[in-house]
Batch of 2 targets.
Target 1
Amino acid sequence: MDDMYRDYILDHYKNPRNSGDLPGATNTYHDTNPLCGDEITMALLIEDDKVKDVRFKGRGCAISQASASILTEEIKGKSLDEVKAIDRQHVLENLGIPISPARTKCALLGLKTVKGAAWGLSEWPGDANTAGIASGKE
Amino acid sequence: MAVSVRAAATPLDVGRIRADFPILSRKVHGKPVAYLDNAATSQKPRQVIDAMSRVFEDHNANIHRGVYEFSETTTAEFEGAREKVARFLNAASAREIVFVRNATEGVNLVAYSWGRDNIKAGDRIVSTVLEHHSNFVPWQQLAKDVGAEIVMIDIDDDGRLRRDQFTAALKGGRVKFVAITYTSNGLGVVLPAKELVAEAKAAGATVLVDAAQAVPHQKVDVRDLGADFLVFSGHKMLAPPGSGAVWAPEATFERMRPFLYGGDMIMKVSVEKTTWNELPWKFEAGTSSYVDAIGLGAAVDYLEAVGMDKIHEHELFLTGYVLPRLEDVPGVTIYGPKTLDDRVGVVSFNVEGVHPHDVAQIFDREGVCVRAGHHCNQLLMAKLDVPATTRASFYLYNTTEECDRLIGAIQAAKKVFGV
Ligand SMILES: Cc1ncc(COP(=O)(O)O)c(C=O)c1O
């Protein structure tokens, strides 16, 4: 628990990477996490099936915003197939902090918006829990 | 009820009370637990736990069914609990008390049973931005289904209801129903419920009062209040989850159709026709949470022995202790009234630069349990223009030391976030 607010988490929270608008974005996806009231809009610029650029805008708890920020650094330059293959386990491991069940949704909101954008969705199909993206309930 | 207590000391022997609550001696992350999330649910005294264990260990049997001793004893305790609740609320009789699982089920009972037969297209339903979702969403959905209109009453900057808007809404006519909370779970404001009820009834409306945050914290007298319906949950008043009640005058319940159909709520069943059981069982379909109800009876005994007025005064004492100390912390914003008039011990705040969920997470490390989120009050959060708040809420067993730890935990959160 003491490890949850590590310096790099707080740094990503206070100085989010790839933050702001992305003019010319090809794919944009917005989602929220009602537990914390977290919000993230993820914008991708996809060219030749690659993530050429990414920016996100959001507000919410440190975990949700830091997780999204870390993810944007990771996906920049990756192929769409690689991005679509990122799973929750990978994101949680990458965060490198213990995440309680109640905060899992916060930690995975960034991934959800990245996936939504990568697949070109406008709305999440069905229940995010069954899709294995989010978990935990208010 | 206007209360203006300015207690410099608590009227309660809190040490003795705490000894009745086994959970309060637990440690969390190596620190004694400071349980400050009583608006969400309360802890349970030994007396309630024992009353429930006794049923299971000694005479458990389904109620209203067996003619053997176990069933008769359990039934007597269950109906005895109803008598206690009736007396606690100063209801005219136990037939006015329908047991439900919680306040939410109580509101839905009224919405489905009374609402669907009485609220028609073009009617208006008045409600407030202070409502818990459980006293808003059922009315919103009913309004949608029947073509009625919802009129929302706002609050002022201190979180108090805009009486002018309430009066204007009633004057606007066509108000069939008023759904109001007695006490806001988000801000701790106590509404002038008796006056609002009188005004609404004078305008010809039927009124439901959500007393989920009132019944646990102050004396509530249903006959004095004069509403048509009142609901509350047991789990917020030392009783187990699964207990709660809807109060209404017998004549009102008599005119209503049942809510849920099935066993226990019937008098006679044939293929052609079914007749309903007497009050209050007409509204209690299936096997009730009878052990929970018996626990509620024991909780009422406990609260009455301590005294509701003293409990209320104690909570105001703690609120009066914590408010100025919170105000002194740079970067803290308090939502709701900053005085002790017409409020209970619910204190909502935010710390600049730290999201409420991160605040609560860091508090957890300090052993301090608070709620962070929208508190099932998204209308209120929108009004306050925040996604969430951190909320501390007190009960009879809380202490000024716990208030100090709350303030200390805020300092800890600020330190972690460097704000
Ligand atoms: C004012 C108010 N009304 C209704 C409810 C709903 O209570 P329950 O979840 O027990 O049905 C709550 C609980 O938080 C409340 O605070």
Target 2
Amino acid sequence: MHIAIIGNGISGVTAARFIRKLSDHKITIISAETEYFFSRTALMYIYMGHMRFKDTQPYEPWFWEKNRIDLVKDYVNNIDFNAKKLEFQSGSALSYDKLILATGSDSNKFGWPGQDLDGVHGLYSYQDLEAMERCSKGLKRAVIVGGGLIGIEMAEMFHSRNIPVTFLVRENSYWSNVLPKEESNIINKHIKENHIDLRLETELKEILPDANGKVRAVITNKGEEIACGFVGLTAGVHPNISFLKNTTLETHRGILVDNFLKTNIKDVYAIGDCAQIRTPKPGRRPVEAIWYTGRMMGETVAYNICGHPTEYDPGIWFNSAKFFDIEYQVYGYVPAEMPDEMETIYWAHPDGRKSIRLNFDKKEKHILGFNLMGVRYRHEVCEKWLREKTSIETVLQNLGMANFDPEFYEEYESEVIDIYNKKTNSNIALKRKRGLKGIFSFLKSNG
Amino acid sequence: MNNSNLSIAHSESDLNGKQKIGLALVGIGLLALLIAWAGAGASAPLAFLLVAFFGFAIGGLLFAHASYQDKIPGIKNNGVYHKSISARGIIAWILAILITGFYICLYWFPAYIEGLIRMHDPLSQVLRNKPADQWFTYGTFYTVAVLIMGIKFIYKYRHNTYQIIRTISVMCFQLLLAYLLPAFLATMNQPEAYFTYFWPLDSYALRPEWFGWNDPASVGMIGYIIIISGILLPFVVTPILTYLYGKRWYCSWVCGCGGLAETAGDPFRQLSDKSLTAWKIERWMIYAVLVAITLLTILLWVNHQTHNELLGSITEPYKKTYGFLIASMFSGVIGVGFYPIMGSRVWCRFGCPMAALLGLQQKFFSRFRITANGGQCISCGNCSTYCEMGIDVRAYAQRGQDIVRASCVGCGICAAVCPRGVLRLENAADDVNNRTKDIRTMHISKEGISIPM
Ligand SMILES: Cc1cc2nc3c(=O)[nH]c(=O)nc-3n(C[C@H](O)[C@H](O)[C@H](O)COP(=O)(O)OP(=O)(O)OC[C@H]3O[C@@H](n4cnc5c(N)ncnc54)[C@H](O)[C@@H]3O)c2cc1C
Ligand code: SF4
């Protein structure tokens, strides 16, 4: 059987690796972007000089041959689903028995005047990075539009080269549709202390060209003109499926798939950023364009293709990011706006760069989520507490178990408990300090 | 508009004022060394010594201060691969040639560094009551490098308590046990013992020809101390500490070679080769050296006991070859001289028999491991890039697998540079025999969805 995979990102590559582990099927991965899989999440570090491009490739070139995974660098113009054939830009074609679509995302553009000018770019692909590099020489100011994760990464990138940045954020606080108010504020301050010109409640209205069709300035919704030589469009991404429009493949925002990641066409699957789950699990969104879900879908689809029908279940939500020098981790349910039935304990360090938040159910008193800034928590421990709906007091007493900061770092768990005690007039105490001891027996225990 | 970020340097062409002054002072120190090397060191030793020392010390510290103090604490690797010195550029090659040349003179042509040695006479007189020799000169350079670059390192990682404490430790061991104590012993007319180096790293430590073995009493109290510690350190203390904390207790907390690598070598850590081929070569070489030194030690004793009747003819050339190839060529010339080209731990990774021995213990019988934090890895590659031992940390982390590798020296930089909080150095006795077994990232298996734990 020949399995063709369009897309050599984390989703497609994980699928290929697991299909190889489970079977002897012929595997071909097609991508127009780069010859080998690289980590998109590390694009910023190439620009900042932390790594070379080759350091972002998780597997050495020999890996693909050794595992008999064929790589094709070409663009798929069209898919003939009836004849089970891919048609490439180069003119050649490839037949398949099963097809996995793992085509990823594309940067959003909202029809701004001037959005296709020279010097206007998103940050998604390797080619986007090359464009940023090209535009950086002699650049006097960059304007970044959109206050999400990619926008702040782009700001950090320019900042690392001393290129002044103006950062336009539509909301009244950075990433405030995801982060609770306090955490969002920490990041606002941190952006400013990095000398980024942060403009909250400001939107892009128009991008102005110079005589050569290159960016010269932007105009904001407040009528201000900001001179700049680069405009970064980082207002989110959408599934990269335009080449699949007008086919029999059912799409909505993304490629629609059932819980086994099957599309409406037999033998065709979709995974990763480009997939849209028809009936997502409670609390999950139909399109989740993140690394971890791509990886889990890649593994799930491999099981499904290799005769072990497995439903896609991403488990309990987790994510992480880094905003300049502040690391962020989240486990479970941490909404930006607190629902009525939720209670929260929030601790913040006086240095303004660390915080710990624990959300729990007001009535049932069980843990709902963890939100960390500048402090690391242990994934499995948080996950087990969340899965088992552990009571907040048990969690607090054992909170040291969750702490994943390096040795000799200060521990703040008892301060978190103090806040809880004050708030609820209780008198509980920390029973465990940070460290691995006892964690194995905890993780292996049932209930 | 706020343009104050313009003052922060990101490459050599973009240094701030204080950094420039710092570099100028270092340049003056370097110039003093070169003139002294050319011969002038003999005529005005004190002047050259002071100019060189203060040039490096004040210039280096000013540079470190100017580079990091005004920045928000955090990982400071901007531009590492844009700078000539840390990206194998022309400056790196010049530096490598300079250091390599110095080592070659040091080991085989000390007459060519006579100027540098004479320059150290005043210091040697104060510390040891006798004129300097090439080894005292070398020890001084070494210690000053560890101290100045150690302080720079602490500035750079000042948000990271583990890095700070560990670096203070290597600085103290170098200064006190590997520099001042031997000098003090010299003033007391005692043998210059280095208690931070022992068998098998110190190939002399257990050799029968060391004069104390036959008659420790003739060396006095210190003779007994040297012999007892020479046996206890490798065979009792080492296994216990390695069981408890991994080989890091030695390699990145105590050892002088490690101390230099972690401080002066830090700007070059990313240059280590991460390929599978390099790992294969490493495993062959390092264990071969361990076997070689073990055989040599055994041979020497057999010879000694049989008064050269057994195997006498091969022992001498064997000893000479080991001394030339391993002790001088490898640990010195290549080990340090090639820092700017091959990274800071070439010797520790490919050649050090002590590291080989500690590594075996770490791999098979230690509580130490680097834990991967569930599924949080985004495969970015920072951990692998900044691993000075060339371990492909990411290969484990992205599968949610804990890292148990013989070569890991526990410097903790992978955990520091990871942008997602994935790695943690830890010890636990609960699971010493299956530290590597659990793969926890994935939620799926043939049996269905589960989290194997
Ligand atoms: C700068 C940046 C930082 C990020 N950081 C994080 C993070 O910290 N954490 C996190 O969870 N997520 C992060 N993400 C999101 C994450 O990288 C994506 O969710 C993930 O890479 C998606 O993987 P994928 O395999 O689904 O698609 P992709 O990685 O996009 O792979 C799709 C590939 O298919 C190719 N392709 C598409 N169509 C065709 C065609 N017709 N013919 C040939 N080839 C085609 C594309 O060129 C591309 O190479 C980040 C994204 C970016 C851009
Ligand atoms: S640095 Fe962290 S996130 Fe990046 S590859 Fe290593 S473990 Fe994964």
